[in-house]
Every structure is written in structure tokens, then in C-alpha cells.
Amino acid sequence: LENLQIAFNDAGAKRFGSGWVWLVKDKDAKLKIISTPNQDSPLLAEYGGLVPVIGNDVWEHAYYLKYQNRRPEYLKAWWNTVNWNAAQSRFLLRG
After folding, report:
1. Distance in angstroms (rounded) separating the CA atoms of residues 13 and 40
2. N or C: which end of the chain has fewer CB within 10 A?
3. Where are the alpha helices (DSSP H) in the chain?
């Protein structure tokens, strides 16, 4: 889990400007981490029909009041809010 968090947080911290970071399931049921710009979703055809398992909004509006420009700190704290039962349910969906 620690390696997942590190890779996920790194992808979120590197997203320039507004966007999202996702843990997704691909068509082979393999997990991977992607980052999308602005309002893009892994469900869009251009991403190949990926199934979102968890997602984090890294637009400034999601964290600015509490974290100002400290996105990495926000990403680290965000893990305390992940609903793993919901993530498991999404992973088990057929995609």
C-alpha cells in the first residue's frame, strides 16, 4: 500500500494546473495510476475505457482553504478519507 500511495501522490503532485489523479483498472483487470487534465475522466473513450477505482481532485479548489499551495501535503492527508470498501466494489465491476 505504501508504494501505491507514493506513486499516486507523485502523479498528483506532478499534475500541472487543474486535474485529477486516478487508480484505474484496465481491460486486463490490472491496476495503474493515471493523471488526467481538467475535467477529463478515465471513462472517456480516449483513455480506453478504464474503470476508476479511486480518484483525487487536485484542482486548487479542492484543497486551497486548508492547504493553500501545499498540494503534496493535501495528497498525503487525503488517504485518511479513502473508502476502501467502495474502491473494492468498483474494482470488482466488469469493465
Report:
1. 17
2. N
3. 2-14, 64-67, 71-78, 84-92
